[in-house]
């Protein structure tokens, strides 16, 4: 994600917080900080938040690629996001003749005990 989109996302979040304060407490933080709703600074902030909201619209439809997500390379990094839980599947090596004979002996001994 580019720096412009990150700035736009931060401004959209600031706007969302401001609207939340207006809806819950009837308190306009931007107007309180910059001298009322009609001041040039407040109008500038409102305009930037509105433009950043428009700029964030493509983020809704962007297909995120694996390159966008940074994952640390350790055993705990993706314990909650990796669906295979660090399980590796691969081909097993062939058993040698000695291993086959030993497995057969163990299996036969188990059958005799029963």
UniProtKB/TrEMBL annotation:
<keyword id="KW-1133">Transmembrane helix</keyword>
<feature type="region of interest" description="Disordered">
    <location>
        <begin position="90"/>
        <end position="114"/>
    </location>
</feature>
<feature type="compositionally biased region" description="Basic and acidic residues">
    <location>
        <begin position="97"/>
        <end position="114"/>
    </location>
</feature>
<keyword id="KW-0472">Membrane</keyword>
<protein>
    <submittedName>
        <fullName>DUF378 domain-containing protein</fullName>
    </submittedName>
</protein>
<dbReference type="InterPro" id="IPR007211">
    <property type="entry name" value="DUF378"/>
</dbReference>
<feature type="transmembrane region" description="Helical">
    <location>
        <begin position="7"/>
        <end position="34"/>
    </location>
</feature>
<keyword id="KW-0812">Transmembrane</keyword>
<dbReference type="Pfam" id="PF04070">
    <property type="entry name" value="DUF378"/>
</dbReference>
<feature type="transmembrane region" description="Helical">
    <location>
        <begin position="40"/>
        <end position="61"/>
    </location>
</feature>
